[in-house]
Structures are given as structure tokens and as C-alpha cells.
User: Fold these one by one.
Assistant:
Number 1:
Amino acid sequence: MNKIFINEKVLKYIEKRNLMKQYEKIEKYLKEWNFRQIDLKLRQPKKDKIFYFRLNKQFRLFCKISENQIFIFEIDNHQ
């Protein structure tokens, strides 16, 4: 079982914009370690080891992965 930690500001941002259903679906894939489904990508510069994935067409979530933990620390409005 993997642990997912999300920044409180990010969680409030998601709730405020009614994106919880999309987030819960992504969270399920993250817990299963199924990164192919969410199209997880490594952000430039690669040495920072920051990953991102789409919440929907408009929003991106940024995270760091270490051992069995995923830390979601930022959300970005892509448009």
C-alpha cells in the first residue's frame, strides 16, 4: 500500500473547483502504482525529480515520489 500526501492548499483548491471526483480517480491509480493510466511525466530539469500529471485538460498536479510515498505539492492552471 502506497501513501499519498497532498498539500492542504492544493486540496482546498481542488474542492473549491469541484474536481474531487477526478482527483479520487487519479488517487486510486496512484495507490495502485499505475502511472501509465495517469500519464506521469518527469519535469525539466530532470535532476530535480519533480513529476507531473493531468487532473483534467486544464489542471496539472506536481509531485515528488520517494520509496512508497507520493507528495503532491502544487497544482497549476495550464491555460
Number 2:
Amino acid sequence: MRLLPLSRPALVCMVLLSAVSTASAHHSPAMFDMSRHVVLKGVVREFQWTNPHSYIQLLVRNDAGNETEWNLEMGAPNYLYNNGWRPGTLKSGDNVVVTIAPLKSAADGGLVVEVTMADGRKLGNAVK
């Protein structure tokens, strides 16, 4: 079977259309329960300044005193940077209070809405 050559404009359109559908699908908040917020108090294990999303790995003690690790998703580094965040904003060992939109699956994770440091300083919105 012989393939017909595509014109440059047709090829550019195909690439752009495929990128748009991929990007919009990737950034869906469908896995989070955006109708409610949960407040977590814990210790930062790791702050991951990565694309396409940054993450906070937060160690939280449950009612029984056992420590669980929560995987908290944030916006892209560019978005966070524009809202005052920097790669060193959170460090391992920092005590924080994090407000999240929890995962619908009830797993230990969620989408970060707000982070407050132990001294009461709010770090701003991680997502809008």
C-alpha cells in the first residue's frame, strides 16, 4: 500500500489537534472529589518539583497513631512559580497543614488546594 504525502499545513494541523486532545484529557480533575475538602496535618517526606505536575509526599498519623503516606498532586511548576512557589519552598521534615480535594477512590491522595506552614504562613493556592 502506498501512502500519499501530506502537505505541510495538513501535517501541522494533525499534530496540533492530537496535542490538544491529549492535553485536555491529561488535565481532567475527574479522579478528585472537587465538592469536598479534607484537611491533613503532617510532615513533608518529599516535595517533587516535576512536570507535568508537582507532588507533596505527606506523612500523616491516623487516629490509631499509625503513619500513612499521602500522595498529593499539585499544578505544574510554571503555575506554582507564578504563585510564589519555588523548588525549595517545602523541605523534607516541614510540618504543614494541607487542604485537599480527596481522591474519589478513597485512596490516600488528593489535589492540593492550600498549604499552611507550622508558623501559620499560607503558601497560596496550588490549583485554581
Number 3:
Amino acid sequence: MTRVEDVIADVFGVDRDAVNDTASPATIDGWDSMGHLNLVCALEARFDVSIDIADAMDMVNVPRIKQVLLGYGVRG
């Protein structure tokens, strides 16, 4: 089962162990506005959902990403 942390690690090219509940744009290199767009697109593709722009903007760290995805029926 794919997890949110796996997607983040893939998108930003970091070790999976570096992605935990404290991961955010402040802790992961490349998680800037363009990186965030790439992350949202990867999450949509991996979990087969279409994320509303307001939700995408609210995905500021791993726990919040999981909370938003839960609203789309995704447990990640």
C-alpha cells in the first residue's frame, strides 16, 4: 500500500526515512511552490483523486496532507 510519505519521498527525491509527521516545506529541500504543485499532482495520480485547489493550498505538512486526503476517502 502506498503511503503519503512514499509519494513525498519520490517527488522530492529524499530518503523515505526523512519523511515523517514533521516534514513540511521548511524541512524538505525543493518543497517550494512548484514542488508543491508536483506533489499535489503526484498525490492525485497515486490515489486517483482530484484535489480541490483550496485543499491543495492547505496541504502544508504530512499530517494535514493525510487529513485532506481522508476527506477524499484516501487512507495514506
Number 4:
Amino acid sequence: MTVDRLVCGVLLAATVAAAAAQAQSKRGEADPAAGHALAISACTGCHVVAPDQPFKPIWTGLPHPPDFKQIANRSDVNTAALQHHLATLPAVPQRPGMANRVLTDTQLRDVVAYIMSLRDKPAGQ
């Protein structure tokens, strides 16, 4: 395979992936992978977001904030409840508490989709 064909193949794959992501965004569908990336960059200071996060959270007091997997597996958590909770956090929380990160609607949907993707599946599924 020549370098030109390889470059064309990579460019074609990137174009197809970008078009798929844009179409998904236009439909208003959440993107858990984008939510994971955002959470890794914005939430790892306090939460365990994923096993692949670059560093452990810095907890300034006890109890520490829940891991994203713990949040996903709470019986009272569903997509709508989690979106509402995150969207209505105060800008300046009472101690201890979480501040509103002021996410766009798309970012909020993506982060919630990522968190909900961590929910344990029932046995046999």
C-alpha cells in the first residue's frame, strides 16, 4: 500500500467519523465517549471518573465525593434526575458541596450518558 493510499484512507475514515459525530449531535443524542473525555478533564479533581484517569482525586475533607460508577448505580438515579441535578447545582455551593460547572446542554447530556453507561447491567444481559 502506498503512502498516498494510506493517507487517503485515514482522511476518509476521519471524514466519515466526523460526519457521524455531527449527525449524532444534530439529532440531540448524547455521546458517552465525549462525556468521558470531558469528565476526565473537568471532574477528576474530586471524583473517580474512570480507572484510566490520569491522577487520583484530591479530597479536602471527608466524606469524599462518590465515584461515577457509584452514582450510576444508585437506585434513585436515572438520566433525567441526574441531568436535572447537575443543571441546578448552585454556582457557589455550601461546604461541602459541588459547584455548577456551567456545562452546555450537549456537554451535560454527554457527561450524563457517560455516567449512566457505568451502571451495572443485570445478570444475563
